[in-house]
Structures are given as structure tokens and as C-alpha cells.
């Protein structure tokens, strides 16, 4: 094996392709590895298409344990946990619950805010530089609430977001009906979150970033990476029967990143949070905003392929089969929310989000070898945070350790 040169990126989702483009753009020799074609196998292909800049809080929050029990008790609740997986998930859940209060909640909020602050502008820069500016537009999002009580309960959070620079406006039933006439007349009101955007098609974004990276000389190897092995000659990337050495390796492999970290003796507590959605290619209705149904864990977006409706958080392990019944339930919910929706020819999709227990990705230099880096664990926000992730990782790889300090893997390896 010859001495290593160039940068290997393991994982060709939206984060991996954004990094491949930024590194290749500045002249690095980049090799991108993935089992499938870019954006094909992970959650990058089927996400909601939102750039959710105002979502600065971790998913865990004060009272989350009691709230989660209520969700689990509801057949159509947004949270599902397979009881057979619970013993394996328990350490992850313990960190998740602890994140919901006190200093841990504040630390997670500060870290997430670094990614959210300026993420709309960073996305515009990234897309413009990659020649795909037409695949993004700024548009406010609607957070819709079933009852006045739930709307009122959300106000403190929205006020804190506003203080952090993410403005919003509360609107009543009449304005909500004017903005989204296809909605059922069952909601108490909404919050219009102004610091948002959306893409035309998440898969088309990955395709565009990949092509831009290739235009700067990046190459793609469609193969399964079995192992990463540091040596004096470089970092060996072991694929089916062969080793190639690189001067640096960046792991952006979603839930598989945990396996690579474990090979190196590092703890990376990323787990598979499965999500489900339906895309209606001819919905027969217009939905004008990205919509978050705040009391249901459901979102909707009008994308190039059609109206996409889905969400939920299902924890059953990375190898557990997906549950078609969940698609059926989401379809029934979609029909309640949009009574005139044409449900024919709906395309079903399910994916595994790489989720961290503190909702904060790991953007970090490895503790095992300084030539190895991680950019993983983005959960629901891989698309939202991809541009800022690329900026932070570029700074880190140039030696600016402070830029990525809040995202270090060391927080799980002390």
C-alpha cells in the first residue's frame, strides 16, 4: 500500500456531498465512498426539504419523559419504541432525558444555535457556489397547533427564538385559512416562522452537490467500506478485498459511523431514528408553506416530486424492518389535515435518521488519530445544517479546533 494522499469521505448523503464539494473546490483530491449512489440509501433522499433555521432547541426538553409516555400511549402518536429494542436503546435514552433540563439543555441549545445561525445564508452560498441556486428558496414556515392551549404553551419557546434572532408571527384561524385554504378547519392557529427556506427536491440537491464536486475532480467509489485503519503510511480505507491509503479520512456515514468509531475504540452514540413519509405526485391541492403540525410530529412540503407528508420517530434498531402500517396511519392523518387531498399513486418512503441523544451532531477530530474526522449525527437536520457543517469542518480541518469545540466527540469519551 503506497503512502496516503488525498481525502476520503465515507458517506455520500447531503453532508458528505457538501463536504466533497467544498474540499474539491479548494483543490483537495477527494474520493467519496458509499454503498449506493449519492443520496440513494440514507435519509437525504426522502427528507422534508426544509431549511429549519429557527429550530434551535434539542428534541429533549423539560418534562420530556412524561410527554413521551403520552405519545407512546397514542396509536397515532409521533413516537414509537419497539420494546425488544429498549434494553439496547436505554443508554441513549438516559442521555436524551438528561439533555432535557438544566445545563445540558442550555449547552445543547448553544451548540445547535451555532449551526442554525446564518444557515439560510450559508445554504444560499453553498448552492450558488455549486451552481444549484435555483434549487432553494426562502419561504416562512407554518407551525400549526390544534388548540389554543398548545399554541399558548409554545409562546415561551418562540419568544426565546425571537431573542436569538429568529423572528416569528402568531396568526389566528382566519389568516391561517387565507394562507392555506386546503387545510381542514380544525386548527386553533399557527406561528409563522420567518427564518426558513426549502429546497425543490432533496435528492436533486445531493445530485447537484455531487456533480459540482466531480466538476472539481472528486471521484466516487460505489462500494462498501468495511474498516478504517490508521498507520504510519496514512489512513487505510478497507473495501471489499482491497486497502487504499489517504492522508485524511472524514466519516459522514450516518448510523454506520458508530461502527467505524467503535473500530477505533471511540464511543459515538448515534442511533437509527426511523421516519416515514408519503409523496403525492398529483395532490389536487396547493400547500403554500412548509408546514409543521406541531402537536402530531408531522410535516408537509410541496416539492418538485409532489406534496410530501410524513414524520414520526420510530426506534426499533438499525436492522429492523420498516412498518407499512405506519404509512397507512400517516395517510389517514394526511386525509384529515387536507380533506381534498387526492391520495392516488402515493409514493411510500422510510429512512433511518442518524440521531444523537443530545440532538447535536458530532463534528470532530477523532481522539484515536488526528487525521480522522467525523461529521455525523444530524438527525432531522442533515439538509438544514449541511452548509454550516461544511464551513465548520473546513475550519477544523485547517486547524481551528475552537470552531468545532461544542461538537466534539470528546463529550462522550471522557
TrEMBL record:
An annotated Gene Ontology molecular function: oxidoreductase activity
Keyword Cell inner membrane: no
Keyword list, A-Z: Oxidoreductase
GO cellular component, one term: cytoplasm
Top-level taxon of the source organism: Bacteria
Residue ranges occupied by any FAD dependent oxidoreductase domain in the UniProt entry: 7-394
Record InterPro entries: FAD-dep_OxRdtase, FAD/NAD-bd_sf
PANTHER family: GLYCINE OXIDASE (PTHR13847:SF289), SARCOSINE DEHYDROGENASE-RELATED (PTHR13847)
Name the record gives this protein: FAD-dependent oxidoreductase
Organism listed in the record: Aurantimonas aggregata
